[in-house]
Amino acid sequence: MSFEFVKQNSELIVIYTPLYGVSEILNKIRIEDGYNIKNTFWVEQSMLRDVEEFDDDSICFAIGKVVDGYIEINQAVVGTEHVFFFSENMKFNPKMFVANKNISVLKKIDQVIDGNMYIGDDEHSDGYSISQSKYKALIEIFPNSTELKKYAHKRIATIVKEFVPQSDKCEHEYENYIEKREHAYLKNENLNIQDFNRKIRREQFAIALSELKNLLEEAEHTSETVWQLRIEEIMKLLYPQYIFSTREFTFQGVDGYDKRPDFILVDANGFIDVMEIKKPSVSVLTKQASYRNNYVPVRDFAGAIQQIEKYIFCLNCLNREKDNFFVKLTEMLPQGVLPQVVNPQGILIIGRSKEFDEQQIRDFELIKRQYKNIADIMTYDDLISRFERIIDSLSDK
User: Could you state, in order of their start, the residue ranges of all structural domains in the chain?
Assistant: First the structure.
């Protein structure tokens, strides 16, 4: 069984050579009004083509046509709601359409986007645009059938979002859930406003905790960019004072080099802080009490702390009248909110601590308390613990 792709008369033709049963498949296409090949291509008689260099053991059918430098894939063939456009100069292969266990790649992507998709090197305002290289990278990490059963649309949305940030409709399930809960609570006339607010907050933290645990299970398969964006969304619950955050916003340091924190945070009064989000695989303490029977921070942990302190120092040295950083940030903030640098603080999320013994817990706490400019240093297990305690405090007594 094999797939080959050729271009003929401004059409993209698929050459499908099954192991056996060519005549039976062709009869179904001609008599039964169509046949589903590998759960990916729905082939009708009008799509069949003759390609000279291929013999009678193959089925040749058109799946798209050339339009303005792109090959527009026929929605009827691939069964998608939205239209997929591939750059005309792309080299096509089966993995671009069919994943492990006959999973249709385009159908799965189609379920987590809400517009047409262009795979090429040009931007398009009427849909999503990703480069050829990024689409190929997406295909390489496309989940298999086991992952799809386990994570369903959530796993697909996580992958696609790395390349198409707009594809976040799966995340709206959270808002829809909360909205339904609000309606249910409001129908109860005996429920006072304090109980109502407490229950809503508990649901918010419970959903965020569930999302955090799922993310930690997927950590090794998630890129740093996607990881930081999803953790940042969860962190908003813990730090409601911040009305705005932006990722990798650049300002110039005192050494003349650009500084780019993971996130710049701005509170309701315009005061600026910074947040660094490292992946859970980053080590925190030495595995052995190697220095005078004390646990000390490993290089990555110490480097992350030093990085935040340098960001804070450079922010304090910025000239409000001359530095374009404030102008750009003001344009992004709500009207009337002016960014200000007054003793900024940092937040660091890094590594795991669930395997710490008592001495490691004490030494880690001692290390955290040494850095007065960093308001919060926590591991992902610390974060889980905070959410669990908040949920418990909001539970019915």
Answer: 2-166, 228-382
Choose among 369, 383, 380, 365: nearest CA to 294: 365
**Under 8 Å between Cβ of 129 and 120:** yes
Provide the 10 A C-beta neighbour count for residue 394: 17
What would be the CATH architecture of the domain defined by 228-382? 3-Layer(aba) Sandwich (3.40)
Residue at token pair 């499908």: 16
Report whether 7 contacts 91 (CB < 8 A): no
- pLDDT band of 182, cuts 50, 70, 90: low
User: What's the distance, CA 74 to chain centroid?
Assistant: 28
Phi, psi (deg, nearest 5) at residue 287: -75, -20
Q: pLDDT tens digits, residue range 7-46? A: 999 999 999 988 777 888 888 888 877 899 988 999 999 9
Give whole-number Cα distances, 312 to 25, 250, 253, in Å: 68, 13, 10
* pTM, to two decimals: 0.54
**Cβ–Cβ < 8 Å for 11, 49:** yes
SS3 279: coil
Amino acid at 80: T
Mean pLDDT of the chain: 83
Number of Cα atoms under 13 Å in the Cβ half of residue 28: 12
